[in-house]
Specification:
The protein has 456 residues and is mainly α. It folds into two domains: 33-130, no CATH class; 207-455, no CATH class. The chain contains 19 helices and no strands. The chain is elongated. α9 packs antiparallel against α10, α13 (251-272) runs antiparallel to α14 and α17 crosses α18 (416-433).
């Protein structure tokens, strides 16, 4: 459920990626008086030539000339009969050259090279050039730009480092909220839930993120509820019998379970601030509520949820065929993303597993992902939700809608298509075999294979 907040960070983050306004740009570019001094070999004519090259965006030529000027300045500093005032002028010239080389690299989006020159300017020549504040501004810009580049490449650890450095450069900056938001995005992708929530709080977007994400999930659930309600109303007006009257739980029970799922997901995440514990707690609560409704409220047997015996040979055929089809589709989907859209997609759960370092955490995560999670999801999505939809809409619509909700609730938007496809397969296996064990075992096998492939 940590992914409940992850996607919405982009909604808030994208409009605020322009981390500096036009006024700052103008201040750093047009309103700086660069006092260049003529000393020995260095002439103002040569310096003015380099300014013209920058205006014409001939950056490489300008950089070569600045480096030549720096070399000449360093030669002059080696003279023995040089006075203090001249030394100061020469150092000013060197500092200005560092600044303009940094600007040239920055305009070419070579932020790592620009960063080196602005760091040197700030640490060594800031006093003579009076460009300390400007160097600080551009240091922050470079850190932010680099962090954003790493974020696009999904190198979240380097992106995290860049946003931290930007925040240190601009602790009270106008666009600091955007930096905290992007840092939260990095933490969330590395499964650092507690740190991610803290950064969300600093950005002031926590409750907005929760609210909008809840609205997205609730919208999907309400659409499903509306479809079922209208179908039920249609049956009543036409006096048509419900297709599967043996399924006792109905629309009200589906709504109750879904609301509990959403509420406890958010509360557990905010209170526990631990992904594994919060997801485990929510799963136990939902499964417990389903068990109460089926076993105690409607006094049905456990077989009502699909827990029925199945011949071993038949179960093996169904499970293996479902697993092979699902994995083949997943590989094909990844291939198409890479080949045609140049997208290398990694599911959130994979990033989460790779972020774990303690053996105890890794073992518990492995058990949850390969056993507990698949079992609870199949009871919820197939045993309870699929049957509840099937009661009113029949098998085909139940397969499609339960699979769509299965994909939606995972909040894996790039990977939603294979998740929906898996949901269709699991529902089909359950319906064809008549036993929930087939979808549970197939789900367990797919998750286990995915984890093994990830670590290999």
């Amino acid at each position: 459920m940590k992914r409940l907040l992850l996607l919405i960070l982009l909604v808030f983050g994208l409009p605020s990626l322009s981390f500096t306004n036009t006024a700052i740009e103008n201040t750093t570019r047009t309103n700086i008086n660069l006092h260049f001094y003529t000393t020995g070999k260095i002439t103002s004519k040569e310096f003015n030539q380099t300014i013209k090259l920058i205006d014409e965006k001939r950056y490489q030529e300008a950089i070569l000339l600045y480096q030549k000027i720096i070399s000449n300045c360093e030669e002059e500093l080696q003279k023995e009969d040089i006075d203090t005032q001249t030394i100061r002028k020469i150092r000013t010239n060197i500092g200005i050259c560092y600044y303009l080389i940094g600007i040239s690299y920055y305009d070419q989006r070579e932020y790592e090279k620009a960063l080196l020159y602005f760091q040197k300017l700030k640490s060594t020549y800031a006093e003579e050039t009076r460009l300390r504040a400007v160097a600080q501004i551009y240091l922050g810009k470079c850190y932010y730009k680099l962090a954003h580049c790493y974020l696009k490449k999904k190198d979240f650890s380097k992106a995290e480092e860049g946003f931290k450095k930007y925040i240190n450069c601009y602790p009270l900056g106008k666009h600091i909220e955007s930096a905290h938001l992007m840092l939260a995005l990095c933490y969330m992708n590395q499964a650092k839930t507690r740190k991610g929530i803290n950064e969300l709080i600093k950005s002031g977007k926590l409750w907005s993120a929760v609210g909008i994400t809840m609205a997205i999930l609730t919208g999907g659930i309400l659409l499903l509820v509306l479809i079922i309600f209208l179908t039920k109303l249609f049956y009543q007006k036409r006096r048509i019998a419900i297709p599967y009257p043996a399924i006792k739980w109905g629309l009200k029970d589906i709504i109750i379970v879904e609301i509990c799922f959403l509420i406890f997901s958010v509360l557990s995440l905010l209170v526990l601030k631990n992904l594994l514990l919060s997801v485990l707690l929510v799963n136990l609560i939902v499964i417990g509520l389903i068990g109460y409704l089926v076993l105690f409220k409607y006094k049905l047997k456990i077989s009502a949820l699909g827990f029925r015996k199945l011949a071993l040979k038949k179960a093996a055929v169904y499970c293996l065929s479902g697993v092979i089809i699902a994995i083949a589709f997943g590989f094909l989907y990844d291939f198409c993303l890479n080949r045609f859209f140049h997208i290398q997609y990694t599911q959130f759960i994979a990033n989460f597993l790779l972020s774990l370092k303690l053996k105890k955490e890794l073992f518990f995560a492995f058990i949850f992902i390969t056993l507990i999670g698949p079992f609870c999801e199949e009871v919820f999505y197939r045993g309870f939700l699929y049957n509840g939809i099937k009661k009113y809409l029949g098998i085909r619509w139940a397969i499609v809608l339960s699979a769509l909700l299965f994909g939606l609730m995972h909040l894996e938007w790039i990977g939603m298509i294979p998740l929906v496809f898996m949901g269709i397969i699991f529902s089909y296996l359950y319906e064809r075999s008549g036993s929930l064990w087939t979808s549970i075992i197939a789900h367990i096998l797919i998750n286990t294979i995915a984890v093994v492939l990830l670590f290999n």
